[in-house]
Amino acid sequence: MKILILNEGFEKQGHIEKRCAVSVSSVKRMVKRGITVVVQQGAGALSGYPDEAFIEAGGTVQQNCDADLQDADILLCVNRPDESVYTLLKAQALVIGHIDPFFQKQAVEAMAKRRLTTLSVEMIPRSSRAQKMDALSSQASLAGYVMVMQAANHLPSILPMMMTPSGTIKPAKVFIIGAGVAGLQAIATAKRLGANVTAYDTRDVVAEQVESLGGKFLKIDIGETGQTKDGYAKELTDEQKQKQQDAQRDAIADSDIVITTAQLFGRRPPQLISKETLALMRPGSVVMDMAATSGGNVEGSVPGQVATVNGVTVIGYGNWSQFVAKDATDMYANNLYNLLDEFYDDESAQFTLNMDDEILAGCVITHDGEITNGMLKQAYQGV
Ligand code: NAD
What we know:
binds nicotinamide-adenine-dinucleotide; globular; eight-stranded mixed beta sheet; Rossmann fold
């Protein structure tokens, strides 16, 4: 079996991917299983893995991978490959990466038509068995950490309390909206830096987790909210959204840093903070919009940029985990190796595509010329 990893570190729509789909350790483990691993030159350069390290690990490194694209069994990616790449792959080749399937209908249909088997890591079920393959979680944990560090960098004050002969500095107030994987990691990071942390989530089951990290949970009564069977938040009604925004206003106005991490699986993220509310914050305060590049939680945030809105610094970088590209690569490469490990059969040297398996049934989105995921088919029909 041959696995190919291309160099994704080129500018694409104003963004350079710094992560790589393999680490030296994951290449070593694949080679040990008898798998041929071909890595395109420079693929690990931005995440701390030089070509020589992949060669030492038993991989092959080459600049031009056109021939490998035609006979690779699996293409491991960070992001969805371009048409110019996936049209070169042989039919039935397996493509694994962040496909962003809900918002890339055309590309997914084209990949199905090419008879590729596409595995979207975003669709890996959030189950105990799949935890070690869960790339959404690994990258979101790092994102939570990065958002706090970036906010601290932009804030003109410090986070911890400091008592000195020159005066006493009060701890910064941090408000975190959305206490999923990223939000909880942000709470833990801000607490470690000595800030006072408050958080809110529409899923009140997370209150206990917030408190166990030393944060205060802001209670807002917006009526029935709940979560889907997979643990994702349900979309609020317009009335509930208004209630949430009204109740959050004071907490936001009183905060030095606000971090929004609210997402709705398969949909655009909810808008949580208006420009009017931003205007209530002290000048120099910092708002981190985790969702800026996918629609935005904060009015006025600019995808990929730092903006100043009513005197407040609003940061909308996106692709947060790649600020720590080495760790992001290591975790992602482990996720992909664990996925291979779960389904690779050493005897036949094949990836066993058992579509009755609940993990593969969830995350394989195209196979044999068809879109195979029911949730996605429904979304594409606009149901
Ligand atoms: P997510 O990225 O979809 O959303 C982030 C958070 O935003 C969520 O906690 C969500 O409730 C919250 N949110 C949505 N709308 C909001 C609003 N209007 N206001 C405030 N908050 C809002 O979530 P996630 O971090 O990917 O986690 C999703 C679920 O999956 C959670 O229940 C989590 O515990 C679960 N999970 C399970 C596993 C596992 O069992 N292996 C692994 C990871 C996550």
